[in-house]
């Protein structure tokens, strides 16, 4: 799962290729933009080729739901913002189960 940093209601795992400083910057971004709620969140950051993969664990109750066009657009906006403000490389968000395996959302 990688190294981990913890803040209130947020654990960010980051694999070897992701510098700790970027994981900390991501956690600050996540908090300052209001993405931390009352439930504990666990996120994993991974670098593959020339991009950062942000793996978000989805609640099981939503696994079978499809993403709406609006939700897809919001995720794309967030990818662009993370790429520009935090990672400075292409960034991809993946919706995953609790083992960080992607959930196909079509």
**What is the first-to-last residue Cα distance?**
27 Å
User: Spans of 5+ residues with little confidence (pLDDT < 50)?
Assistant: none
The number of strands is 5
Radius of gyration equals: 13 Å
Helix tally equals 2
Number of structural domains: 1
CATH fold-level topology: GMP Synthetase, Chain A, domain 3
* Content-based structural category: alpha/beta
> Which percent range fits the helix content?
25-40%
CATH architecture: 2-Layer Sandwich
- Share of β-strand residues: 25-35%
User: Which overall shape is indicated by the principal axes computed on the Cα atoms?
Assistant: globular
The order of strands across the largest sheet is: 1-2-3-4-5
Report the average pLDDT across residues. Answer: 89
CATH class: Alpha Beta
Write down the secondary-structure element order. Answer: EEHEEHE
Sheet with most strands: 5 strands, mixed
What do these coordinates show?
- The mean pLDDT is 89.
- This protein has a single domain, classed as GMP Synthetase, Chain A, domain 3.
- α1 crosses α2.
- It has two helices and five strands, in the order ββαββαβ.
- It is globular, with a radius of gyration of 13 Å.
- Helix content is 30%, strand content 30%.
- β3 and β4 form a beta hairpin.
- With 106 residues, the protein is α/β, with parallel strands linked by helices.
- Strands 1-2-3-4-5 form a five-stranded mixed sheet, covered by helices on one side.
């Amino acid at each position: 799962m990688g190294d981990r940093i913890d803040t209130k209601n947020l654990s960010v795992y980051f694999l070897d290729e992701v510098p700790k400083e970027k994981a900390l910057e991501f956690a600050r971004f996540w908090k300052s933009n209001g993405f931390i709620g009352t439930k504990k969140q666990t996120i994993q950051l991974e670098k593959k080729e020339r991009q950062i993969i942000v793996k978000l664990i989805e609640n099981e109750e939503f696994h079978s739901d499809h993403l709406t066009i609006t939700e897809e657009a919001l995720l794309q906006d967030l990818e662009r913002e993370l790429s520009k403000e935090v990672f400075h490389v292409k960034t991809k968000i993946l919706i995953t189960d609790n083992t960080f395996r992607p959930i196909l959302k079509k």
